[in-house]
Design brief:
With 402 residues, the chain is mainly alpha-helical. It is 72% helix and 6% strand. The protein is built from 11 helices and 4 strands, in the order E-E-E-H-H-H-H-H-H-H-E-H-H-H-H. The strands form 2 sheets. Strands 1-4 form a two-stranded antiparallel sheet. Strands 2-3 form a two-stranded antiparallel sheet. A hairpin with a 5-residue loop joins strand 2 and strand 3. The longest helix has 77 residues.
Length: 402
Amino acid sequence: MLNIQSELGSSSSCDVGSVPFESGNQSINVEESADDSPTVKTSLTRQQLSVLVIVNLSLISLASCYALLAPFFPKLAEKKGATSIQYGLVFGVFNLVILITSPVISILVPFISSKVIAATGVFVTGTCSVLFGTLNLSPHGTTFIVLAFAVRIVEAFGSASMFTVAYSIVGNEFTNRRATALATMDMSFGVGIIIGPSIGGVLYEVGGYMLPFFVLGGILLFQGFIMMFLLPESECIVENTKGDFRKIVFNSVFLVDMLNVLTTLLFLGFIEATLEPHIRPPTSLLPLFISSAFCAASFIFVGPAPFIPLDTSQGLPDNMSTVAIVSGVFNSVNAFGGFLGPSMSGVLVEYMGFKGGSMVMLGIETAMIFVTSVHCLWLFAANRVKNQTKQVDEERVPILSS
């Protein structure tokens, strides 16, 4: 659930105090190289450093709060009389709300300060985390489910507000180091997903269900106030990117990639909502170890690894317009899969059990492997015909005599 930029027809470029190189906002170090030619090195300014630290710490806290539900909420929901379908939908509605509200927030960006949107989103998410920690005090049955849905929906709106503007803010602040800056944000979200349940488990042992949500929610509330005072103001410019949007979205490689992202999120959503009840009794960890090993090995082909000679370039311009469109479509698919996965898992586990439901997910992944394989063969054949045609055309070119 990264990198939400869902105004797909346009890119919202937020200029967070960035100024031209010669204005002095960059910190310049000039060194003499071995051939006496000057080498210019740019270091982080104080504003860039503050933006990067504030945003990344907030993303870690947001991800930690998001990840708290998986280990603790299913058990509480079952005690309150909720079925796997009901608490699976509580997991899934978070991403559905992000999918719906992100375009709306993107429209508001040119009219409202990005700092205000980001800080408000963090503050709302922290408040909802604290409220989620009080659900163990709720009556059983319908009241509990309604309250869980209400808090989760508002929390998703707060998170969408932060995600929608954060990547534009950092991406435009770091014009010369955009890839590195955006990568640190993705890393921060991943770190939050990892440490959230770990910290939550320690706090749960100390103070029960309420303490993890209270502590992490309180941290987010503090970060919201910090962002309001320390995050720079931003000026947003909307650029028309409809032509680039059609070129990217209707690319067959991109479409197949997005289908793979969707099925991956279906699988992750299935695990997120139902794994904890499945492994709650003492069980063998060997299947989990094997699946984790396969998951780790798959990253060899995601890049792919440097030793795999595959050309992954698509001839798209390397600019903020492409970043906005690709990230927007990616996160729309990400959010849709994040909603559909937990929602489906609740139904599958309710009627087929975890083992039966996992076989359905296996069938979906197998179908996706077949589609991807056919597409790869088609690309290989098309490229081969194209190269042969080009070679024939070159041979037909007449040789001009002098």
